[in-house]
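Tutorial, part two.
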Amino acid sequence: MTKLLNILALVAKYGGLLVTLPIWLPFWIIWFIFEKTGINRLIANFMIATGLYLTFKNLFRKPLRLGLTCFAIMIAFLIFSVVTTLKTALNAGVELSADNRLVVVNSINFTQPLPYAYVNKVKAIEGVKDVVHMNWFGGYFQEPSQQIVTMAVDPENYLKVYEEVVIDDEARARWFGNRRGMLIGRALATAFGWKVGDLIPMSSNIFSNREGGHVWEMEVSGIFDGRDEQFGTNFAVFHYKYFMETQTFGGDWVGWLTLTTADPALNEKVAKAIDEEFSNSQAQTDTSTEKAFNKAFIEQIGNIGLMIFGIVFTAFFTILLVVGNTMILAIRERTGEIATLKTLGFSARSIFGMILTESMLLAFIGGFAGLGLAYVMVEGAKTFLAQFLPGLVLSDAVAMQAIGFMVLLGLVTGLVPALNAYRLNIVTAFSRR
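Running the prediction step on this input gives:
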């Protein structure tokens, strides 16, 4: 029985070290290099002079406990960084929407068409700058599982309305002059290995081709990029005229209209004028800003913000309890040492600072490990998910939020133990021993 208990104790000890290997191994390698180069001695002299030496000694006195605690913090910040990045990617269409861009759809439902005659009527409304009509194609390549966001548009007006679509003049001229030309995004070209001049058999899960079947042969005229890194380039656009001439559904309708106003201050006035213009027609309209339209579209799959908050709050609340309890126990174990330090002349304020610094370091070690791992995961997933989440980037804003939470975690978990040490009476502390 004793041997079994000894074996279990060894497994618990070294198993924990193996589990936390990704946390402590990089620090051990850095320590080894610093030790051989003499940098450790310089750091030790500096830490003794500033009082950080005792803080680090106390932090690393139990490596297993440190590793497990840092591992828990790492997981929390990994979850936070990845989930927040995912939310940012899903909301990229909302955040990158132009302030002066409006979307006009059928008031019954987004899927219901509008008469083609509405295009010129909307252009004539005061305050409207440019208008493009667009049709959802329901495209896929080879297999229905390989869905591709594909739209039939008026080429010239599309590039006027969507100025964030960046292409060179040669590609622009090629697209305008080729009836079967298709403009594809960089992410889409990368995903399928397409290049300029390729003939692509694009299928539709909605429309039929007059020549038979559901396939349209299109030629890649150009590859566009986004003006912003988070702008999605996972879609394709092609000529509206070619689409209407070849599909069997009729040719006097459009899916929706997207327009820009001369000034964002005119948005409400223009939207109201458009809806009033068609209020007595068979196809009434519902006009909103592009930002509001995209937000409503995203929220059809649920309240993303609430789900993110729930996940992050649960993770951080759990870690708060774990780290807070660890810090309280660690300080309670060192009651006699703290009393000795006070006896030797260390002020209550300096001891308070040492313990709070220890808590902050604990949060930073685990937090930055989680943030770094999240960056590696996001960068690794970016290529595979480029077609579905083109804005998947761990931004500076997410990193700054994570650092802010590290500071908050360190302060909250270290404040109570630091205050207890600050108020500790020397006589009372020695009497507990």
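The mean pLDDT is 80. In part three we will examine how such features are distributed along the chain.
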